[in-house]
Each structure stands twice: as structure tokens, then as C-alpha cells.
Amino acid sequence: AADLRSWNLQPVVERKQQTIVPRGLRSFGTDDADFFTDLLPGPRDRAGLPESIGFWKTRLEETDAEQTFAVGLIYGPSGCGKSSLVKAGLLPRLSKTVTAVYLEATPDETEIRILRGLRKQCPDEAGDGDLVETLTHLRRTPGRKVVLVLDQFEQWLHAHRGEQHPELVSALRQCDGGQLQAVVMVRD
Q: Which residue from 171, 160, 181, 150 is spatially nearest to 74, judged by alpha carbons?
């Protein structure tokens, strides 16, 4: 009943028609955020946000480690929309209290790309240590929450299969969910 009353009290807002630019085989990005949610099927919340985005948004904005996850996984076949969901649907809608560092993983440069992204997005907090030291420091520093988004993570996984203690695994162990979190995106 409360939802119905809330809905009745909201003013009718005219939605302007968005121009949807076909991307071909490329993923949608932040420039497409205005219309991207219109392309998503399924139920929506009161504000019109699709539940698929609301699920991730809620968990990435959560600062109570007991209410969220340290490292999350988005998994699906090639071309199913994982990158678009994150780049055009989720990241542009995150609260300003969350600093997201998005990058595409590679076999050999993922760790360097993460450090570069952190130093660009969090210049005062990232410091000049290695990846494990940097993530440890970010986890222990109160204030902004940092979320690492590692797209095409299967590239890194295949290159480091069988390694005993890769630096990235040790670094991701620093994620606590409250101050520092990661989402890995993997194609099957």
C-alpha cells in the first residue's frame, strides 16, 4: 500500500525519447548511460532502475562488510552484455562516495593497470607501493570506498593458471567489501 501511495504522489514526468546509437559488436559505455537502462528488460524499482542494476548498485555502495561481498563475479557468454551492464548501466549510477576503477584485464599488465588506475582516481591515498601494499593501505584508510572492476578477467586467469602465489591474488585478498571491493567479469 505504501508503494502505491508513493507512486500516486509522484508527479507525472514526461520522458523524452532518447536516441539509441547502435554499437555493433562494441559494448555500451558511459556516454550511453542515459538510454541504456531503457534497453534492459525486467522489473524496475520506484525510480525506474532495473533490478539487475539495483542489485549491484546496492552491494557496491554498501560500506558494512557484513552486508556485501569482498569480490564479486559477473559471468556469462561472450557478447551477452556484461561490459555494457557495468559501463553504461552501473558505474555511471554509483554514489559519489564510491570510487570505481574500471579496466580490462590483460595476460601481463593487469597489476600495472590497476595501480595506474588507482593512482589516477585516488592520488592522495594510493601511494607508491606495490599492488598489495596499495590495496592494504586503501582498505585501512577510512573515507571513500574503492571498487575495482576487472573486465575480461579470463585473460589474466589463463595466463596465470598454475602459479602458486600471483601478486594479484594476494592483492585481491585485501578486499573487505566495506572499504575495498572488487568485481571480476569473466566470459565462459
A: 150
128-158 pLDDT per residue, tens: 899 999 999 999 998 889 999 999 999 999 9
Q: Are 69 and 177 within 8 A, CB to CB?
A: yes
Sheet holding 180-187, edge to edge: 71-76, 180-187, 145-151, 98-104
Torsion sign, CA atoms 85, 26, 29, 22: negative
Domain with residue 56: its CATH number is: 3.40.50
DSSP state of 87: I
Chain mean position to CA 87: 8
Q: Mark out the alpha helices in 12-108 (DSSP H runs).
A: 33-36, 51-61, 82-84
Cell 567489501 belongs to residue? 177
Grid cell locating 82: 556484461
- What does each C-alpha distance from 103 to 15, 96, 143 come to in angstroms? 33, 19, 23
Q: At what angle do helices 131-140 and 110-121 cross, to 10 degrees?
A: 40
DSSP code for 39: G
